[in-house]
Design a protein that fits this description.
Number of helices: 8
Strand content: 15-25%
Radius of gyration: 18 Å
Shape: globular
Distance between the termini: 35 Å
Order of helices and strands: HEHEEHHEEHEEHEEEEHH
Number of strands: 11
Structural class: alpha+beta
């Protein structure tokens, strides 16, 4: 990996998250809003089985809308009508250049070390819904020594929430990605509404937050507020083993061999195919990956 260190990394390392304002152009925002609106109608009508269903926080999820939904999975799936629009977003220079900066790659570093991971949509839930305080890849049962051991390793990926409408759903404890939980955090209720030091991440439409997925965080979703937020991640080939646990549990392996990116312009298509092949390789090398959380 290059020794390049972007100013974005300084903020991400310090706080555990970094907000990029006006990440989308006006035309990009309008196109993505149209695509997400159509996709939500498809999902709510029972015509798309890849969902995040209430009241479950982590995969695996049901494929029915009976209890309501709070998210839509697999936006790059070739069977999704608007997958081409989502692919243009996911493999765009705007996303890729930011990911490379956060991974410490210089502008002239190639895309061949990047791994296609996940692109999902977080939406207004059918009823008020909250996620418990958690780190994505460290269970709440972990002792301090295990937390520190995992937190001390390179992340080998970048993860983001890209808001298509104003979004204040993500709540974090800044700096908690660099330390074990405090006694107060361990003793707190799973859905504690006033965790010491917590901060609500405030995004305007078109803003994007990149965050360390092992920062202590939760989600608070209001069923009366419109939410359409693209939730994605891209990895680095050197993180294959640890990233497999986070990525493969979502079931991307069931369709990735059928994915094609013929709608992309040539340079984006070449990038997408390379990243797809790296995901396929990661799956082949980590066939025994399990779910990272139990709920």
């Amino acid at each position: 990996m290059s020794a390049y260190r972007s100013p974005l990394i300084e903020t991400l390392d310090s706080n555990g998250y970094v907000i990029l304002s006006a990440f989308l152009t006006g035309s990009e925002l309008r196109r993505l809003r149209l695509a997400t609106s159509r996709t939500i109608l498809l999902a709510r009508s029972g015509q798309w089985p890849h969902l995040r269903t209430l009241p479950k926080q982590f995969p695996p999820w049901s494929s029915t809308t009976t209890n309501g939904i709070w998210g839509i999975q697999h936006l790059l799936h070739p069977s999704l009508p608007d997958s081409a629009e989502f692919a243009r977003s996911y493999f765009s220079d705007t996303i890729i250049d930011t990911v490379k900066a956060l991974l410490g790659l210089a502008d002239n570093d190639g895309d061949d070390v990047l791994v296609m991971e996940l692109y999902n949509l977080l939406i207004t839930p059918d009823r008020n819904f909250e996620l418990r305080w958690h780190r994505d890849d460290i269970p709440p049962s972990a002792a301090a020594v295990e937390e520190l051991e995992r937190l001390g390793k390179p992340a080998w990926h970048a993860q983001w929430n890209l808001a298509l409408y104003d979004d204040e759903s993500l709540v974090v404890v800044p700096g908690s990605h660099k330390r074990a939980r405090t006694a107060a955090e361990i003793a707190a209720e799973p859905y504690e509404a006033d965790m010491p030091g917590q901060k609500t991440v405030e995004l305007k439409a078109g803003d994007c937050v990149f965050y360390n997925n092992n920062i202590l965080h939760r989600g608070v979703y209001d069923s009366t507020i419109r939410r359409e937020t693209l939730h994605g991640s891209i990895g680095h080939v050197r993180g294959s083993r640890v990233r497999a646990r986070n990525v493969l549990q979502h079931g991307v392996g069931s369709w990735i061999l059928q994915a094609d990116f013929i709608s992309l312009e040539e340079r984006q298509k070449t990038r997408a195919e390379s990243m797809r092949e790296n995901l396929i390789k990661m799956g082949a090398e980590n066939i025994d990956s399990a779910f990272s959380q139990n709920d």
